[in-house]
Write a structure and sequence with these properties.
Layout lengths: L1 H6 L22 E2 L2 E2 L6 H16 L6 H11 L5 H4 L11 E11 L14 E14 L10 E15 L2 E7 L3 E2 L18 H7 L3 E2 L5
Antiparallel strand pairs: 1-2, 3-4, 3-8, 4-5, 5-6, 5-7
């Protein structure tokens, strides 16, 4: 049921208004191994936030110097402390930790309008976080645990690319059953599900 939340939805974009960016494909521009060439549109902001979130979630395996350099690359000037919550914890031994951004959305704006310098865009991401222990030679492990979360973040268009300026605490959003209730029978907040299934939600990196 939980996995169905990420698989049962389809990418959807909005069409038309002035100042639409002509190029739909992302440019292959990398810095220090991180893709930063996302379009200067709210859609590009959301896709950049998704890519950066996954990169930072895996940064716990890096040494302190490398991790800090990555934070400064992805963050706006002076914003690294506000983005720090996205950095994953250090992994030890055969531990597995992976974060996958499944859907993204931006509220109340034209997704494809070209933004001006300094424009900030509030992004919401549906995230699946997995953790566990790698299998040994016999194919046995301690199992894999995970959960679904809505991760809010804010990106700023600065000097020709998107940079993160902050990230709020992720909110758990277990998938409701078909009746929209919790296992105890009580009502569940359906707004996160409505956002994920809504026409303004799409899979990161698609147009």
């Amino acid at each position: 049921m939980v996995m169905a939340l990420g698989l049962a939805v389809f990418a959807a974009g909005r069409a038309s208004v002035p100042q639409r960016q002509v190029a739909a494909r992302y440019v292959d521009r990398m810095q220090a191994g991180v893709l930063v060439g996302f379009p200067g549109t709210p859609r590009g902001a959301a896709d950049a936030a998704a890519a950066y979130t996954q990169v930072l979630a895996a940064a716990g395996t890096r040494d302190v110097t490398s991790r800090q350099a990555l934070l400064e690359l992805i963050s706006a000037e002076g914003a690294a402390p506000a983005v720090q919550p996205l950095v994953g914890p250090p992994s030890e031994g055969a531990a597995i930790a992976q974060t996958v951004v499944v859907r993204v959305w931006v509220a109340d704006t034209d997704l494809d309008v070209v933004v001006s310098e300094g424009r900030e865009v509030a992004v919401r991401m549906l995230v699946c976080a997995l953790s566990g222990t790698a299998a040994d030679a016999g194919g046995l492990g301690a199992g894999l645990a995970g959960g679904w979360y809505v991760q809010p973040a804010t990106a700023r268009w600065s000097q020709g690319r998107w940079r993160l300026v902050g990230a709020e605490r992720a909110v758990p959003v277990p998938a409701p059953d078909q009746r929209g209730t919790r296992r105890d029978g009580g009502p569940r907040d359906m707004q996160p599900l409505a956002d994920v299934l809504g026409p303004r939600s799409w899979a990161p990196g698609t147009v």
